Amino acid sequence: MAAPTEFLTYIDSKADAFIQRLADAVAIQSVSGDAKRRGEVVRMAHWLDGQLKALGVETKLVDLGKHVMDGVELDLPPAILGSIGNDPKKKTVLIYGHFDVQPANKSDGWDTEPFELVIKENGQLVGRGSSDDKGPILGWLNVLEYHRDNQKPLPVNIKFCFEGMEESGSEGLDELVEKESKAGGYFEGVDCVCISDNYWLNDRTPVLTYGLRGLTYFKVTVSGPGRDLHSGVFGRTVHEPMTDLIHLMGRLVDQQGNILVPGVDEMVPPADDEEKAIYEALDYSISDVESAAGGQISLTSNKVDLLMGRMRNPSLSLHGIEGAFSEPGAKTVIPAKVSGKFSIRLVPPQTPEAVNPLVIEYLKSEFAKLNTKNRLEIEGLHGGKPWVADHKHWNFEAAKRATRSVYKQEPDLTREGGSIPVTLTFAESLGVNVLLLPMGRGDDGAHSTNEKLDRSNFIEGSKLLGSYLYELAAISK
Fold it and tell me: Which positions in this protein are listed as binding Mn(2+) 1 (predicted)?
């Protein structure tokens, strides 16, 4: 059942008002990873709660407890649970999204103020959170507004779960989801889940995503001297922590992306011909990868191998070193303590519980080979399991029909390289199919400078979300 024509024309007619609401949301600096901006994340929760209530959603703010950030105990921002419709004859879909954003400052290289939505002549809506994930959340509000203004019943019952800590590990959310998924809980009766927190592969072809890589993140610290030392006095007289750390970091992954930790790559079975055919059919090329990366630096010229490297194979990336001299100039210091950070993106059947012991054992073994008098400390900072769904499920079929209706083309089926750990929590706790239905494009720069959402994707994406609900109502389980 296609969405009513008047719904599509309504979305077009309200485009300017919807963009203004997005501007209001972007202006709230809800950076969850910055303790000084925690109040802004809370303010964003209350703003969104008010918007939902005004559109007829029954909501409640849920206290998720406290956590420690940068040595300071803070209240976690509240999660929002919402519900609209309780017709037992209708399907019930659970919608998830997050209202926190990545850090952003003009000095990072933004062309404009990151928390002021700028509408460019080419239709790009530039601002932190425009694509990740405030735009998609407001897309659902746009759908609700049509039904409220025209006094139309929704084709399905909807439950909402919005959080403010996704960019910082979704602390407290797993426990909430598990609790509310039990008999008598808020999510009882949910038939399927839809998440709009990812992106197209490119700027031209809509996608449906049926898999996400998991994550395990490590901090490795090497220390020895009691204080920073002068290299002219102590060079070649002591074991230097930086030398040991660089050696360890260099033993984790090779230049072709192969993970050197024994047993990690070997956990993953090779793709069969049917799976390889999915990657071959995707509207994505080597040039798309290199254009997005800003340089001709792809690991291979084989499209299938490259896409599997992004989506269905694990990867290990080195992220940074703390404690080392990094300012301009030439300071000749030997750091007393340095820490390296790296992560491994996981794919089924890998889990942090299975991979972490291999990593720790390997690091300790490689460190022992150095015969150093320095000390090694290994910390697991956070992690999440990978997820893969059945893309032939009726939930996906409804999304395929909606995509064809709005975009007049077949969506690509993708697995994403990134991680949204709560996806698996929903799938396991509720025992239902989870769909990722993206709004934004592959060039949105969600965690980068000048993050944007194209006007067409915001407006047509709102139509897509509404059309999905109508197709969901019509399709047989």
Answer: 132, 167, 447
